[in-house]
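Structure tokens please, single chain.
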Amino acid sequence: LAILDVMLPSMNGFEVCARLKNSGFSAPIFILTALTDEQSRLEGLGVGADDYIQKPFSIRELALRVRNAFDRSERVFGKAKAIEQELLKAREIQLSSLPKGAPNVPGLEIFGMMRPATHVGGDYFDFVRPDAERIGVVVADVSGKGMPAAIYVHTMQGIIRASSTAARSPMDLLKQLQVHLGRSMEVSSFVTAVAAIFDLKKRTMEIANAGHLPVFLKRKRTIRKVHPEGFVIGQVADEGFLEGLKSFRIQLRPGD
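Here you go.
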């Protein structure tokens, strides 16, 4: 707890209170002063003071106000701690649902990881095996952050894994996301995603992109941007999504 007078030597109590609040000081701040006019009270409360006490004051009343302030802080801290524990558990669940490691595929070197900026997030990647001769990679990002985005990621993961064996192309995977996720999302939410399927026998990669960042193909000393057309996944793009989605096939070479 901080108890401030207003008339201080180098900066007044209002300025000290404002600086403390702006710096993230979370404990209660009281202003205890002989300034009793309304404008001073409004200024003190306006800079974030939790209480404004006028002189002369009662020690017993001040003690009760302090106790009440601590009680409020403890209740808020207790709720915040419970929410923190739930978010940490949600983070643990989200990270555990991602691939534990890259599949061992002769001829390909594969790596993937995701580290949320907050407790949970809207980033997603996964590997799928339509059959023994093909492996697919999906990378996606839900708009926004936090729990709503994480819930969409969880739904997206179920759709991808349920659709993987029947998917004949990366466009099939993205279409399934639009049909089973995009059409039910809030209008303000959307998903960008890119899917690629590697044919190990033919040594080709077919790729489709639903509004996501481009993929880069490095071949010897050159870098090529691979960015087939496609709308984002969501309600706003539903009408033209299927018509706007395109795929691109690349013949791979050793070292690509």
